Amino acid sequence: MDTNDNRPDPDALLMAIQKQTATQERGNLKIFLGMSAGVGKTYTMLGSAHQFKAEGGDVVVGYIETHKRPETDALLVGLEIIPPLQIDYRGAMLREVDIDAILARKPHVVLIDELAHTNAQGSRHTKRYQDVLDLIEAGVDVWTTVNVQHFESRADAVRQITGITIQETIPDSLLDFANEIELIDLSPQDLRKRLSEGKVYTSERIDAAMNNFFRVGNLTALREMALRLTAEHVDHKLQDYMQIKRIAGPWKSGERLMVAVGSSPFSERLIRWTRRVAYNLEAEWLAVYIETTNPPTPEDKKRLARNITLARSLGAEIVMGRDDNIPQAIIKIAQQRNVSQIVIGKPQHTPLQSILRGGSLVDKIIRMSGEIDILVVTGDEGASETSHRPILLNPEFRSKRHHYLWAVVAFIFIMALDFVIYNLFLLDYQALALIDLFGVLLVATYIGRGPAVLVATLSALWWNFFFTTPRFTLQIEQTQDLILFILYFAIAIFTGNLTARLRQQEKRAQYNEERTKALYRLAHETATAIDMNDVLQTAIDQISRVFDADIAILLTDEDGLRQPVNLTNTMPISEKEFGVAHWVYTHKKPAGRFTDTLSLASAQYMPLLTPTRVVGVIGIRTHRDERLSFDQESLLETFISQIALVIERELLDESAEQSAMLRESERLYTTLLNSISHELRTPIATIKGASSSLLNHATNDNIQNRTQLIHDIEDSADRLNRLVENLLDMSRLESGRLSLKWDWCDLTDIIGVALKQLSECQSRDIQLDLPIQLPLIYMDFGLMVQIFVNLLDNACRYTPPDKPIRITASQYQKQLHVSVIDKGTGIPPELLDRVFDKFYRLPNTVTGGTGLGLSISRGLAEAHKATLKAENMPEGGAKFTLILSLLQSPPPVQEAKYD
Amino acid sequence: MTSGAHLLVVDDELQIRRFLRISLEAHGYRVDEVETGAEAIRKVAQLRPDLVILDMELPDMDGLTVLKSLREWTSTPVIILSVRDSDQDKILALDAGADDYVTKPFSVDELMARIRVAQRHSIPQETSPIFTHGRLSVDLVARTVKVDGEIIKLTPTEYALLRYMIQYAGKVITHRQILREVWGIEYMNETHYLRVYFAQLRQKIEENPAMPQILLTESGVGYRLSQIT
Q1: Hey, how many other C-beta atoms are within 10 angstroms of the C-beta on A10?
Q2: Would you say the CATH fold of A256-385 matches that of A10-244?
Q3: Class assignment of domain A256-385?
Q4: Interface of B with A in 104-163 (CB under 8 A)
Q5: What ipTM was predicted for this assembly?
């Protein structure tokens, strides 16, 4: 943080601009602010709505509370009203705003009265202002009314002024959110007049109201508060405006405040106070909470949660630390975060207690504060009513009752020991003191500080009583005994403290280690997971183990949130729960149990967020069904972000794989296109060329030329035909639409037919090495012919025409091996399997041929559950072997019968 | 007998009709053309050609339907023009009464050879008692078979099979037809019989059994005893 000069702070500028653009996409919020009930907020709002409508605007009534005031009632006429939801709550019919209906209607402006209202149980959100925020996010403008007393930062002051505790409060940040604040101002006298005229409440309540809330003093103070609030808002808007327009003005002071938060109600006041100061100083502020090894009571937990929520809702950044030395931790965080002022409460212990504890918290902090300012704020009288466990002060490892019992036992043991030694060994009683001290040390080491102190006291007194002169009295005569006595105490307490602290640190280190181990385990397991299901299973197992909870993870696809994958240990999700999860997915905020939104759900749902998007939602329900501690929550958050990252990694892997496959098929497509186009064009070019030559008189006259050209045309036609058939075969194989006509076939026959079909092979030396009695094979005749046509075509095309081609067949047990052997150049050993790839042609081969033949042969072979492989012959040349299984034999044939 | 014979060409492709007409007329045939199945049926009844060349892929109706319709009242020889991968269709057509087939793309020589065979078989001929084909000589009366002048021993079934093929020399016979004729109607699906017996026959009468010249396999359809040219 910089800037004490008047240059715009780039961060702040960006924030302001972002705020500006963000507000343009959102709906506008207009607050009709009043100092109390009855000033005419709803009335004014309705009036504005009518005017807006008259000017052609689209405005509907979302919820108006008329309090049965006739003037207000009259104004409802003529406006479109969206009927409220009826919610049955313990027999009473409650009416709440129907958000979904409003969203469906999508008006330009919707009127919603009483922003601070708390919704009935079963509503989507706990508070009405959250509903309003939803509407604004959806782009609908909202006009609403609220009294100044409902704002968080003012609630305290209002309570002090009027004596009334405000139950329904709303966060101050809503003020920042609002685009317009219209102050409905009325002088206290005028308001009282209205009240007496019965225009505010019905007659029974008028007197009471007059004398309590509606006293002039109250109303004046409230009026001032409302005016101030509005002025502050205007001031801020002006600041924002000046910032964006880069008008030099008083910039932020560069201050940063920090307040220490605990479970005491006193914290609440500190928080509100800090908020007000921060707001006025235009400073950021943090609320810091230090967790210690001292476990808080459920009461404390609840109050702490409330305080933290309050701080958060007032706009503080929450920082959590874990240390048993609270002042040290606070100062460390303050230094890390460049805090300029720390807010702390006045000490409540008496000076004596402070000394004993090594100085109060405030003193310690002041001592360590260095450059940081410390603001000390007064506590509340009301605060001391509640039990004040000194969590924020020196933490102790609280010994339990049974520890003390053990201490007593230890003491009795020491007593006995002393006795024995004294009488047996006739040692001086001073030495006994040392033995006792040793006993105390043991107790301190293995039991705790409290018990150690107890044993120290008891044994000291015992020693005094029993051994020091005069014996059997508590008096001490000799000075050295007295010194011994006092020192004994001091040493006992000091060592007790030391060992206790040591043990705390040990516990803390252990805890940290556990935590790191859990995190490491999660990271390690998920990093080595094989696929998405593995990742999810690992995550579920890890989290449910560490947090002792049921877990469900929901992922997304193009349509949105999916039902959770069915893995072991997954928590089942009902339709309703799925709805909550879906809300979390769309709003990217936590919801469910222990949150403000949809708190009736049975589990808590959190979005799995990565920097780029939401990859899913995780639902968690602890077995003990209680809220997680802050430490646990921060660990869970770390776990969740880890899991989100791993899930994203898996998704990226999948999409990378798909991209690779896409690229591969692109490559094949290009290869296909290239080879096909060449193969197609060549014979077509020949046909065109030869035929156009024949049309030319000059060439046509020579009969030899003519005949040659015509032969060329015929050959080209054959070649084209072969290509077309190959392509058709290929596509049939690919599409899986190959229907086989299984029948008994004679291999020799097949080869004969294949040879007949190949014009290229007519002139070649084909040697057939087939045994006479070959068993019949159960295949598709036509397709088998194709296999050999392709193999032979291959052999004829790629080997020198003068070299022979041999076809052999032999039977090995239940297999028939048929080979086509050529005497060409053979195939490079590393490419022996690649030759069967689609469109693959060996490098340095003559042109002509699509590279499909072998691929088709293999495809057809596999369709017959046979294998086709290539080898090199030792004497040179390649050998292609088709291996057919002879699992059946045909039924024996019979001679024909004659009549 | 070939000159002057009247052929009807049924094909919807102009260029195919054209080269057929040119070649066939150059060889002395009289050629008429139609483009559709319906027209074909009408023209056959009207013109009474000596032979019909029928394309199986017609625009208005299936070639098989045309064939069946013709066979209801005439035994005029029909040669069908088919495509490569339609073995099943070829068998159906042959079983429904087509005399022979050529597969597109075909050479005109091939077609004309088939036409000659089909014509020969459609006219009751004087059957010579001796059938010769290259090295093979069969005395149908004495029931002796000579190869290169030497008498060879055939089993009764082998002989029956050879005789059946000679009877339809030059023409394609489907597996089922052969099996039904030689073994009986219950054996119509026992294709492996044919494999075994033809292999045996080839071993006995062919110069190179692996590359037969006399007993030819029509892949996927049946067998044909090659024509004497």
Answers
A1: 10
A2: yes
A3: alpha beta
A4: 105, 107, 155-157, 160
A5: 0.86
